[in-house]
Amino acid sequence: MRWLSRLTTVAIAGAAIAGVAVGVARLARPSRPGGFHTSAVFRDASGLPLGSRVVIAGGAVGRIDRLTVEGNQARVGMRLRDDVLLCDDAWATKKATSALGDSYVELSPGEADPAAPGGCLAPHRRLRSGEPVPRVIEASSTEEVLRGISNAMPRLDERVASAEAFFAEGRQWVAGPFHERVVALDRALDPDAVGRPLRDVDRALDDFDRRLAEVEAEVGGLAPTAGRRLAGWAADVAAVAADLRTARADVASGLGGVRDQLDRVDPFLADAVDVVAALDGRGERPGRLAGLIEDGELADDLADVAAGGATFTDSLDRLRTVIGFRIENNLLAVQPRFYVIAEIASRADQFYLVELEKGPWGDVPAPRLEDQAGSPTWTRQTLVRERLRFTAQWGKRFGPVSLRIGLKESMFGAGVDGLLAGGRLKLSLDAIESSFERVPRVKLAAALAVYRTLYVVGGVDDALTPGGDLPIAPWPATADVPIQFDELRYGRDYFLGLSLHFTDTDLNRMLFLYGGLLGALISR
Question: Is the omega angle on the peptide bond into residue 476 within 30 degrees of 0, that is, cis?
């Protein structure tokens, strides 16, 4: 039975060897994924031997099973798994496994969606087995990359050489001119060279601060009394003006009555001539009164009385009054201003100027700052009351030039006037205290007589301050305000206007003319 055991041993060994051979053969033979065939056309198919992988998103889905040449291009045939889904917008590209190794083909399926009808999103469709991939993206080969690097190296060498030359020049400049300038700047910044001028400036500023403190103390001492004095002076001027208006009206009415009486006396003047002739001794019967007239002492007494009367009437003549009305229109702010003017001359070289002004600015503004609760911001409010502004100034004449000082539009100010062309042209300059700016408000005006009492007025107001528009926010925010208070024009502005001036002579003529007309109307 020994031969049976040997036969069994040989059969088992042969079966084992056959199984091993079959397994090795299967492992050595490339797998055949499935029956879906496709292809792609490449200009360069180097590095893609038969059996190279075909992947989608990094996963192997097939192998390259054939290579053919068509003209100057290579068609790469691929065998993929049956479950691979490719659409008509799919594309293929060649990628290298390493810098010097073989390559593989990577596919992008396109607008593929297994849930969509046909497996692709509209308007695309699924590729059938045997249809080629429509698009191919050629990848750069290792040779092309190396050739590009080789071509770029000479230019890179040139740039590096230029950079080395630039840094060499920079080192020379830093070691030479820059070092010299730093040394010179260090000498210029010596403590004595800089500190001495600074100490001089500091001493000058200390002296300036001390003088400002002295001036502030003096002004602070005068401020409480200046307001009361100016208010009393304004009241006195107003009272004098009222008295003068009353006196002028009385004098005008008295002169009108005197004129009527003189008209009635005219018939008796002829008889008076005869009487005077008789008194002079030329008549037929000279009487006792003629002897008195020939008395020298009586003549001297009469001469003294006449001189006193002349002095009194001359003093009345020096008390001259000019009353006027003026309207000015600001061209940029488009706002009118109205003035009532009275100029009272107490002597031949002194006068008082009184004006009342009505305009868009109202009374003297009163600005103030208020903090808001719970907020770091401050609110600036300016209160302007609807009141008249008044002017009360004392002036003195020096030939055609006159100087004025006092209150100008409710603020302290001074001015100078000049008469040209025989009094037909009047130039004026006023410097007025400003409510908003640190510089004074300067007003330049010119008045040209186009008629004996009518003047054309023009000029520039607030000439030293650049002009602008300040928007006005209502307070509170929901308040309803007129449209003219939406913004405030401030600073430099130009104006044009008309002015009427009436002297005592003009007023007397007007009283005589209108009085006669009124009398004629009443007599009817």
Answer: yes
Structure tokens at 81: 């798994």
Tokens representing 509?
């003529």
So what's the pLDDT on residue 280?
Answer: 56
CATH class belonging to 319-523: mainly beta
Provide the CA 291 distance to its chain's centre, in angstroms: 92
What global pTM score does this model have?
0.39
pLDDT tens sequence across 182-214: 877 777 666 666 667 777 888 888 888 888 888
Break the chain into its structural domains and give their ranges. Answer: 36-139, 194-286, 319-523
Q: What is the 3-state secondary structure (H, E, C) of 271-293?
A: HHHHHHHHHCCCCCCCCHHHHHH
Say which residue the tokens 């009222």 belong to.
242
Q: Residue 224: what are its φ and ψ, rounded to 5°? A: -65, -35
Residue 88 CB: number of other CB atoms within 10 A?
16
Rounded mean pLDDT, 318-322: 71
Higher pLDDT, 514 or 91: 91
Q: How far apart are CA 416 and CA 395, in angstroms?
A: 9
For 464, the token pair is 């030293």
Q: Report CA torsion sign: 329, 333, 337, 343.
A: negative
**Do 322 and 503 form a contact (C-beta atoms < 8 A)?**
yes
